[in-house]
Design a protein that fits this description.
The structure is a homodimer of 107-residue chains. By secondary structure, chain A is mainly alpha-helical. Helix content of chain A is 61%, strand content 11%. Chain A has a single domain, classed as Arc Repressor Mutant, subunit A (Orthogonal Bundle). The radius of gyration of chain A is 18 Å and the shape is globular.
């Protein structure tokens, strides 16, 4: 028992393993190019060519970022014949993006 | 006009300046120690000593992280005599943290 025991009991402190996973998630959002890709995919699914065109990134840079985003389960893919379409993986991604944007615009 | 014109008109793509600011915000959440501090401050305000004690970080590491969090407006301070208490700056911070945690636990 020490003088912080009461506080420690009250606080639901994040353990180190979950802190690491959560840091990786936020770090997936910490790159301007990735964020521009996420903004492009907010309401539409697109193939690499279209994403590259509207973000101004090269196709190879776009593919590279999409691979990272997919590994972290921020985007998912759908195949249609030989085409691959990308979209945001779930509602969390969109809400995290919107909340972050809201914070920098109005926070 | 090119073949993407219709899509480009529909998509509210993040400009580079805002993408940079948003990347900085998410990168403030991309450190396990910072996330553990945020988790400690979720429901209570605390001074540096208490945060240090319950996170297991040294006081100087805690102060360093708190300075960074404050610069990015994720935490704020309140003075009471010679004591300084830290708390989360606004509801956005808590909601971003909770949503991220929800994504890694259930996403």
């Amino acid at each position: 028992m020490n003088k912080y025991s009461d506080i420690i009991r009250e606080v639901d402190i994040l353990d180190e393993q979950h802190a690491q996973l959560l840091a990786e998630l936020f770090s997936a959002f910490s790159d301007p190019s990735r964020l521009r890709i996420i903004s492009a995919l907010k309401d539409l699914e697109m193939n690499v060519g279209t994403i590259s065109e509207i973000t101004g990134l090269s196709e190879s840079a776009t593919s590279h970022q999409l691979r990272g985003l997919r590994q972290l389960r921020l985007v998912r893919t759908r195949k249609e014949g030989r085409q691959v379409f990308y979209s945001l993986d779930d509602e969390h991604v969109k809400v995290l993006y919107d909340l972050g944007l809201n914070h920098i615009l109005h926070g």
